[in-house]
Structure formats: C-alpha cells, structure tokens
Design a protein that fits this description.
By secondary structure, the first copy, chain A, is α/β, with parallel strands linked by helices. Chain A has a single domain, classed as Alpha-Beta Barrel (TIM Barrel), CATH 3.20.20. Chain A is about 45% helix and about 15% strand. Chain A has 14 helices and ten strands. Chains in contact: A-B, A-C, B-D, C-E, D-E. Chains A and C meet through helix 8, helix 9, helix 10 and helix 11 of A and helix 3, helix 4, helix 6, strand 5 and helix 7 of C. Chains A, B, C, D, E: Belongs to the DeoC/FbaB aldolase family. FbaB subfamily. Chains A, B, C, D, E: It comes from Komagataeibacter xylinus. Chains A, B, C, D, E: One of its GO terms (molecular function) is fructose-bisphosphate aldolase activity.
Chain lengths: ~300, ~300, ~300, ~300, ~300
C-alpha cells in the first residue's frame, strides 16, 4: 500500500526513531480495513492471564484456542493482535506475516492484591516471533511504578535498537487513587503524558471521566477553564497531553457495556481525535459472527469523516 | 522409532519452537512403554529435598541411592526421570542416554514457611548432564509469584535457545487461597493457563476438585454451565485451559492414597484427555516389585483406547 | 566563537576530564546571548512528568508541544534545553544542532509520596539524541539517597567515558528535614558539596534562605561568623562549598513569584557569583512574548558587570 | 602416590565431574597421613572472623599468625587447610603446593544476630591462590537459605567449570529450629541431603544427637524403626542421606570438650562410616605440641580397621 | 629511593599480591619524610561529604579548595592524600605524580541515620586519576555489614587485578554496640581482623580504649590476661590481630583534642608498633602554618627509635 499523507504526517512525528521502527509503525497503520487512515483497532487477548481462562473464555469456548484470536483479528480487518508470550507462540507459525503482532511483555493475574506485574516476555522473544512491537503495562501511582518504569526503559531501549515499536498500557492505580480517580480526566491525561515521556510510540489509556482527582491539578483545570465536559473534549485533552498529538494514543473499551454504549464511546474517541481502540473482552466473549459484526461497526466509525 | 500421527500432531502444536526443542519433546514422547502414544508417565524424585531424606526414603531404604531411581524408571518403561542437580549428577554418567532426564531447576524444603524456592540448577547444568528438559516450579498466588515467573522467563528463554524443553510445575498457593482453593477447578485451570502463557512446553498441575474458589470465576462457571461434575470433565477443562489442548498437561498423583484410588485417578486423567502422570512417592516408597507392578498398571491404563 | 579568558578559566577547573567532555562544557557556555561570559541560563521542562500535563501546560496551551520549548529556548538565546527522554525524542531531529540539550535521565511524578525517582533515560539515549549532557536528580537526606548516588556514579562514569557533561540536580529532602530545612543555607551548601564530590560538572540547587538546620553545622556557622545575611552572601557560600568555585553552580527560580521578585533573585545569584539560572515554569506558563521578555531581562542581568 | 582401590571407588561416585575436579578430589584424599584411605582430616581456621581474634587466638598466641596454621596442618599430616581469603593470601606464597587449601568463600561474624553470611571470596581468588576447593556455608532453615543456595549454585558452577572441588558447610538454623533442633538427627541428615542435592562434592555437618525435630519426619523415623540409638548409627544415617554414601561427608568436632570426649566422637564417626573430621578450635587453641599429639591420635583412629 | 630492609620486610608479607600492587605499596611507603621507615602519615579529606562543607572548612576557609589539601600533604611530606571522587578530580591533573593518592570509594553524609554508605567511586576512576590505592569503609556490626563486605570483595578483586592497593576503614557500629563499644579493645581488634580477612592491604581503625564489649570475648581476655592496660599495649594487640603484624594497620586521630593529647596518642601508636596515622580534621581546620607544625611534630615522632 502506498504511503498516505496522514500516515506520513504521523510517522514524521517519530523523528528520533530508526527506519526499522518506522517501518513497523507503518505496518501497524497500513494493515486491515483502516489501512492508511492513521486510525487503529487492535485485538488484545491477555484476559486469560489477567482474569483466568474460565472467566475469560467460557462464554465463547472456541476462544480457548489461540488460533481463534489470530483468525478473528485477520478476518475482522484489524490492525494488530496483542497477546502474551505463550499465546503468540501457539499461533505465530501458522499466521506468520498475516497480521502485525504485539508481544505483551508483562502480565499480572487475579491471584494477588499486589499492584505489580511480572515481565514474561522479552525483545528477543518478540523478534523470534516476528512481532512488530512490544507491549508493556505500567501502573503510575503504584508502589512499583518506578521499578516498572525502569524495566520499561530497558526494554524500550532494546526494542528501539531492534527496530520494534513500543506500546505502553498506562493504567494508574495505587494508594493515592480511589476507583474513580483511576479514570479521572487529570489522571488519564497524566498517564498518557508519563508514557510519552518514557518514550512510548503508542499509548493505551482508559476513556476518561469528567472527575478531577489531584487537588493541585483540579485548581488549574478550573482556573484555566479546560474543556472536559464531553467525551470528545476529554479525548482531545488526553491526546494533547501526549505531546500535542505527536504520539499515537488509543483507548480501551472499558468494562462490558451494552453494544450501543460501547459504540457511543468509540464515536467519542473518534470525534475527539483519538487514534483508535484496543478492544478485547467485548469481542471475543461473543459468538464469532456477532464479534465480526461489532468490529465492522467499530471500524466503520473510524472510517467516517469527523 | 517412527513418528506416529499422534506424536506428530502434538509436535505440530509447538509451532514456534526450534528443531532442537522438538527433538527433545519427541524423545520424551517416544521412550518407554508409552512411546508413540502421546501419553507420558514421568518419575520425579525431589522429595528428599522437599520433605527430607528420612521421611522420603526410610520406607524403602534402597531409594536413598540415586541409581535406584534411574533404574526403576528405566525398568518400568517410563518416559523420563526428573530430579534436582545433585541426584542427576550422581547417576548421569552411568545411565547416560538410557532415559530422558529433566533437571528440576528450583527446589524448596520443609524447614521454612516461606512459599518460595531456590534456583539450584541451570540450563548449562542441564546441558552438561545430557538432559532433555528443565523443570521449574511456580507458585501462582504466592507473594513470590512474579519473581518466580521472571526467573522462569529467563531460564525458559535460555532453554529454548539451547534446544531443551521446558516443564513447569504450576502449584497455586498464597494468601488468597486456603487449602481447598489450591486444588479448586478454577484454580487448577488458571494454573495451567498461566504456565502456558509463560511459554511452558509441558505443564504439571494437581488433579482438580469440583470446588470453585474465586467469586468472579465461580459466577461464570455457573452461568455458563461449565461441566466440572466428574474428574474426566475437570481434566478436560484444565487441558482446554492450556490453549485448547495445544500444550501437554500432565497431573501429579497427589497425597498417598490407596492403590485403587490412585488408579481411579489415573483412569480419570486418561478419560479426560490428560497427557499423562508424574508420580513419585506413590512408587519409590514401596518395595521395588510392588512399584514396578503399580507402574505397569498405570501405563496399561494409558495404553487403553478411550 | 573564540575561547574567552573566563570560559578558559572555567574549563581549566575540569582538569581530570576528557577533551570530549570539555568540548561539551564549551558548547554549553558558548551558546546564546551569554556565550563566552561563563554564565548560563537553561530551560528545563520536566514539569509535565513531575506535576502532570494539565497543571503544567494548561496556563499556556502551546506548551503541550515539545517543539514549543525547543524554539523558545533557541529564540530567547539560552544556553541549553533540558527535558526527559520522550520530550527530547519529539524534537531532537527538527532542532538538531541548534541548541545544546541535556537529557534529564531520572524523573518522579506527583502520584506517590515516595521520595524517589525512576531512571528513565540512559547515556546511550543521550548520545543517540545528540545531547551535550545528562541530567540527574539526587535527594540527599532521603531514604533512597545512597541508591540514587550509586545510580549517578554509574551514569556519570558512562557519560564521562562518552565525552558528555554531567548536570546534577541536588534537592535535599527526607525524614531529617522539614520544609524550611530543605532550603536552609547549610543544607543548600551541603547539597552542592555532595554533588561536587560525586563528580558533577554542573550543579543545580535551590536559592538558599538564611535558616540553619543541622545543629552541629549551625554551631560552626555562628562560631566562625560565616556571612549568610544576604542572598549574594549565601550564593557565595554555596559556590564556595562546591570546591571554592571550581564547579559550575546554577540556581533554580523557585516557586512561582512576582516577576520583580524573580528578577531580584536573579540579581542576587549574579552578585553572589552564581554561574546562572535554570528556569522553567516561570517562563513557559506565560504567553510566549512575555516569556521572551522575561528571559531577555534575565540574560541582561547576567550580562551586567558585578 | 598410586591410586588405591578405595580412593578410586570414591572418585567413581563423582561421575558427572571433570578430570580437573577429580584431580583435586584426588589431591585432597592423597595428602598426609591418611593418604589413600579415603578418610580426611581438615584444619579450618575461620574462627578469627566468626568469633573474633582475641577469643580465638589469645589462648595460644602464635595462632594469630596465618603461617602457624599452614605449618601445623602440614606437620600434622592433615589432608587440607581451609580459611577465608585474607588468611590464605598471607601464606599461600610461602606454602605453595605443600598442602591442599580450601578457600572459605563466605563468612559471618559475632557482631550481628542476622543468620546470614557475606561472600568474601570468589572462584577467581581460589584459582589465583592455588586452592583445590572452595568452601561455602549454607544455613538451611534460615530466612536467607534460598538466597544462600542461589549464591552457592553460581559459585559451584564456576568452581566445577574451573576444575575445583566444592565443600559445603551445611548448618541448619532459623525460626523453625531451637538449639536442640539444629543437631537433631533428622535435621543433620536433611542438611547433608540438601548439600548433596545442591551439587556439593564434600559435605560438612555437625555430629547428630538422637533428637528428632520435625513432626512429620519423627513419625517416619519411629514407624520405620530407623536406628539412631548410637553415634555410629546416626553417622551411618547421615552418610546414607547423602546419596547412600556417594558423597563424602565429614563432621565437625563441635564445642570444646574433654580430649577423651572428642576422641570418642572421632571413633563414632569412623565406626559409622563417616569420611573424616574437620577440626579447628580443639587443636589451635592448645600449645603446638599438644595439638600435634591430638591430631596424631585422631589420624590414628581413622587409620584403624573398622 | 632504594628499598630499605624494613620496607622490604613489609612488602614480603604481601606474598599473594602482584608486582603492580607491591609497587603501589612501595610508593605509599617511600614518599615523604617517613620514606623507607615503614611508617605512614596520610591526609584524608572526606569530612566535607561526611559532615558538610561549612562544618568542615569554615574554621579555615582556604580548605574549601581541593588544591589546598594536595599542597598541604605535599608540603608536610606526608605519604598520601585520600579523598572522594570529586575532590581528587579537582586536583589530580595539577598535582599528578607529586604524591600518592587514595580514592575513597564510598561515603556517607550527616543527613541520615542509616548506618550505610554509597559507593561513589570505582577502580576505573582510581586508575584514570592515577591513584595508588582505593579506600573503602565497612561498618562491622551494622545491618549493612554483609552487603558492604560483598561490595568490598568485588572492588578489592578489581583493584588487585589492576595493581592497586586496598585500604579499608573498619569502623564498627550497629545495634549490638553502644558508643563505648565502638572503640572497645576487643571490637577494634575484631575490626582490624575482619579487614585483614577481607584481603585489605592497609587497615585503618580507631585508637582502642580499654573497654571490653562482647561477653564471650571479655571472658577470654581476662582468663588469658591479655595486656590491654596501656595504649601501646592495646595498639600492639590490634596489630597482632591483623595476622600478627603481617598487615599494615594505621590509626585515626579521633575527635578533636588538645594538640598535646593528640601527640600523646601518636606516641602510643608508635610505641605499640602501629604503622602510622591518618589524620584530617586535626590538621586542615587549623591555619596552614600550625597544621604544618603539627604534621612535622607527628612525623618526627614516627622517626624516633622505639
């Protein structure tokens, strides 16, 4: 596919990266139904690790099989498929080259209350499995945040040297934040900014609410009349917080909602200038036909003119 | 021995592994009485380290000698012998090539209440001792789980580079689990899935009970009517949780039971589609003739048509 | 630009450094309006990371864009621009060579009460981004101080081997210091001395108050009648504490104050023999024209004869 | 000296070791009065570090000098001399080649209640000082046991690669053990077994009492009627616990006792099939002539037919 | 200068060291007024780091300048100058070759109650600055002692490989010791012995009092009638505890005392067979002329026949 002006503009923002990394960002943006638009829809499947296999896959048993997710992402025309080491290993040969993959390099589980993760994959693993990017989760505000940032620094350095892209899941949680605080607009914007400062190429955060959490920040948002009234306005602020749009910011689908509620969120992300969505449970826990329908509706939204 | 269709099908699931690792998986599946069936019975002897030598070997004193276990496993026609560094070193020369061996690379003892292990063997040790695989224990749910997963990541990476197979003992324990929870069906399935995500080639878990432990999981199992009523059904669910059967899952024999109870468990594992058993105390604590009889009965079960 | 006697005198103080490091110190002192004077004004932009993007940039939204800061520093004729990894990556290509840059290699955020930082950039990053120096923050008196000093030792050693300069932000905080103690004159002088002992080429501390904090030090200051009555006298004492002026010591602008108060502080720094200022929030939170006016006034002060 | 059948039989047990390590085991067994018997008496001098110099050497002041110990061990016809780094460095040149030496690579002191040790010597040190073996202490049951086992793993691996032998002092202590428990027969046997599993060539434990400590073990010892009534029976059980005699197990002299009591212990070790003694304070705290007499009596015991 | 018999005798005690290290020990003993006598007086200046710059240098302001100390040590005819990284870097070029230097590789400050230090210099730093030795402080009895010993092991190994000498400051402190205990004779002797066991070439301890601290040691000192009545007797015991005089032991000047009291201590050190003094605050806090006079008096004492 030829390079579109929009994709070229986005690639130009990565002005310190090697041709290898730019080529992988290109691949991520030039695959599937959204190819060339600068928008991305990614299928992540780490819920088996994070929540357990029964809780994740029993609603749609074919989803126990890693091949199911590869083929779903390909058939739906998504931009990429992201998963932990074992799941990628189980399909990387069969589907080699058919869709860009992202090795989720750290993971947590539901068997602990520690707000931490284990690094379970490496850049070397990503390379041998033919991935385009590594994925890494940080928990800003947790007691482990500095440790996680330092792990990310090392892995991002390695990834960039190897021509891979770096995708950061930035999920604030910790002693200073209650449940509402984790998705407050000042906190989501902060999470996106931290990921950008850490050198992420692609940043994943949750859709922000209109809560304001940190008192010192709240004062400024009110004094400066920052527009956070609507989801598109908040999405715009989060994207602005990632170097004024110089970094790709995508958003998760959040807790299981009605399909219409989910599509409303997608519309808000698109209207606010978000670069796309990363959406897992809401698709693979439905029957395949319904999932394909939903993913078609989502990509259609991102194909609309704003 | 020629490659059987069943072994070929299993090997094909390891689509991201090198020929070296596949060759060692082949050796593990093509040795002994079960050669070519895709079923495995393995003799593990780490109880001296885990429980102490007197408690483990006094019931059958010839078992103090490492050579006893090598020759027992060979004579019984088992697939492999697994033990910690010192025990393998004590027989690896005498029995070189006669049976595949698995270096158990971490161990605990009964002198502490810490739910942790020490890494006591390395991939380099496994190579110099002619092993086919490394073995590694993780305790999902323990305070040390993330540390253990990171140790495993490094050792598995090294092992795969060296053409070895990786066997993971996945034994949940920790503050969120009571004794019943450790073998609850949702927890055993979760343990198998985590090991699969970590890149294990062969996964060892305990036979699951019909308990359900985590509330969020319990709800899904009930809502989705997951069949966990019988041991074969539960075995099937655990195997399904390891990438829909794409990974070899074997089961321990559990606490010392009557021989008939033990054989019933073996039958349940076989009927549920389990790949085999790993069985230690129940064999080497009996007189040799009785142990050979029992192991013969076990392999006979796995040779039956389901 | 030719080497002025003042710059030569300063460079001669770095008698154990390589030509590479001296060349970078030369670049830092021979750029912008203050070139050749031995005085420096540096723009640091790490407040997005330290305080959050909204709180830092909402008062002047163009400042969300990393390019804004590069061009502000260049247009104002400053000596250097300092920022964390991501912000430098976002502009290092566009502005390559136009102004010396300092990679701020560790950062904290406002989402924790831990008095610690994460190392988020490396010497290798500084080199690939064309930086003249690395920047590193230590918190003398914190529970993490020795760990931070050891991190700095490793990074400074690497930087010196690579011909980079080392800029140390020395900000005392911890259980032995209350808020007033953090800027007490004995503590600021101590902070500068520790940074000098650690091998810093350029030391950044806060402007000191006339408080005296540590009892054993207080006694000596009083007995020896050390002059700490005026800001210039205190600045002189801090510079003296950094090897009698053999190390470049610059001062932060401190909390947001009136412009006149800020310029008074700058005058005090200049009169006391300080080597310059590092000033962020006070500039980029104003409209660009006002910021340029203020920076012009500041550089004019440093151009005055004392 | 020619290879005796007994030494050959012992060397054959080390079937996974390199010729380099076997050569050093040969040297240890073929030096001094016990050469060729497969029995060893070793002089260890780490009490200066462990208990302090005055407490250790004031009873016999010539013992402050490292040369004293070298020459005592040589003159007494012992198999080896073991000491920490500094003490070996102080005599390794003068006595080069005259007696095998063992570098005690970790040490503790009497200035702390932590049940831990510092690693103070390395395999590289052992090689440059011409040692035949490294010595390493583990405290099974202590909070540091897993850490110590991992340190030992790394050092043993290095030592074996370099052709050195590995001697492990296995001294249980920690929260689960009271003073009596530390020398209980089940615990001493467990300590010997753990050291064997960790890959030790030579294992040093304390002479066991007839106490039984761990309830689960106690039950088995009683049920199986394990003979622990006499010291020779207990020594036999400990040796059996180290792979049925496939590993050299030697015993310490224990607390200062009457000479006759000490010789009784030696007789018990010999009769029970122990491989020898490691005896420090009981010799170097006496006048030299008395020490030589005592060591002569000890070696005479080990020369007797059992 | 030719090799004197006394210096040769001392060098011969370092029988496991390389010619490189012996050459540096030779340089340390063959410089200044005491050249060839085997006695050493060393100027250490780390008080700026340990106590703060004002408290250390305000009594004699020229001492803020690192060059002051270099030239004082040279003019006074001392054997060596010891300081942390920054202070050496500030003068190493100007005074290259004029006096042996010791890089003090770890330091603490007065801003914490942690009984620990940060490693702030390396062997590579010592080599590039032309030093003859590294200096390292351990706090036996502190909670960090084993960690510090392991740091020292690594640095000493590197230093010896590079032909440098190793000077260990051994300062007991920690939960088992009260203030008096830190300088009790059994503790000072123990501190010297530990440093010797760790492989130190030169050991610095504090002058001991006649207190006895550890009960088990106290009993032996009394039973064996160890002479600790006078300072020379105690110095003799400390030197004896460092391998019967095979290691150079020097003593600090202690807290600021009257000049006459200080000279009495020096006489006691000399009479007891101490190898010299390391003396900082007592010299550089006086006017230069007085300091030179005092240092002249001290070296004169060490030149006297005993």
């Amino acid at each position: 596919m030829t390079l579109t002006p929009r994709v070229k503009a986005i690639l130009d923002h990565y002005e310190s990266d090697t041709p290898g990394t730019k080529a992988n960002l290109y691949r991520l943006m030039n695959t599937g139904k959204l190819a060339g638009t600068g928008k991305l829809v990614i299928l992540p499947v780490d819920q088996g690790f994070e929540h357990g296999p029964g809780r994740s896959f029993a609603p749609n048993p074919p989803a126990y099989d890693p091949h199911y997710h590869y083929s779903l992402a390909i058939e739906a025309g998504l931009n990429a498929f992201a998963a932990p080491l074992g799941m990628l290993e189980a399909g990387a040969g069969t589907f080699a080259g058919q869709i860009p993959t992202i090795l989720k390099c750290n993971s947590s589980d539901s068997l602990t209350t520690q707000k931490n993760q284990a690094v379970t994959g490496t850049v070397a693993d990503a390379l041998r499995l033919g991935c385009s990017a590594i994925g890494f989760t940080i928990y800003p505000a947790s007691d482990y945040q500095f440790h996680q940032m330092e792990q990310l620094r090392e892995m991002a350095r390695e990834a960039k040297n190897a021509g891979l892209a770096v995708v950061v899941w930035s999920y604030p949680r910790g002693p200073m934040l209650d449940k509402a605080g984790e998705t407050a607009i000042d906190i989501c914007a902060y999470a996106a900014h931290i990921a950008a400062e850490l050198g992420a190429h692609i940043i994943k955060v949750k859709p922000p609410t209109e809560d304001l959490c940190l008192p010192a920040a709240k004062k400024v948002y009110i004094d400066e009349k920052v527009d956070i009234a609507t989801l598109p306005a908040r999405i715009h602020h989060v994207v602005q917080s990632a170097f004024a749009g110089r970094r790709i910011v995508i958003f998760s689908g959040g807790e299981h909602t009605t399909t219409e509620h989910l599509l409303d969120t997608i519309r808000g992300i698109h209207q606010g200038g978000g670069f796309g969505s990363i959406i897992g449970r809401n698709t693979f826990q439905r029957p395949r036909a319904e999932a394909l329908k939903l993913l078609g509706d989502i990509t259609d939204i991102f194909l609309q003119k704003v």
